Amino acid sequence: MNIKVCGITEMKQLQQLDGLDIDFAGLIFYPESSRYVGGKLDKKEVKKADFDLKKVGVFVNPEMIDVLDAIDDYGLEVVQLHGDESPEMCEDLSSEVEVIKVFRITGKENIDKLVAPYDAVCDYYLFDTGGLKESFGGTGQQFDWSILNKAKIEKPFFLSGGIGVEDIAKIKAFKHLDFFGVDVNSKFETSPGVKDMSKVLQLKMGLK
Length: 208
What we know:
Shape: globular
Strand order of the largest sheet: 1-2-3-4-5-6-7-8
Helix content: 25-40%
Number of domains: 1
Distance between the termini: 7 Å
Strand content: 15-25%
Radius of gyration: 16 Å
CATH architecture: Alpha-Beta Barrel
């Protein structure tokens, strides 16, 4: 089970996540987020760090040049696109880094139809709840994961949206051939952008 901890704003916490063998760490490049990395992380320090975890840049409807600059400045290995980015943009970026495309689920979507245009141009999908306010505002809501059971998907995917340590049993009970990992954020914080590492460790051990 892969774990992605999103909304990291401190170098020390990046190092701690790496020490806990967490697989992915998300750095948010969306200025309206309270977890925006601008002015909080030293890009040179992040770039030169020798981590086993993958650094993920999280963007919302960005300009291509801004993503490319962030990849270079921070040494990002993965880009997560959280807006209405086109398959063409994903394809262009996929020559530079791995790409996670986010889909916001309300429960009314045909999942396979929704992801089809991105099948050939992304490495992973991430299914999240609601809109941008919910995703970046830390409202801690979940969608009904069972709606994914009817979808083929055929791409490694993350579950996201309001996941906490209290969901460990629920995560372990969820079965899908392409279920790859969980993406966690607000329910593992002491304040926006500051993670409670004891909770992260609890999740890691619980999902073993």
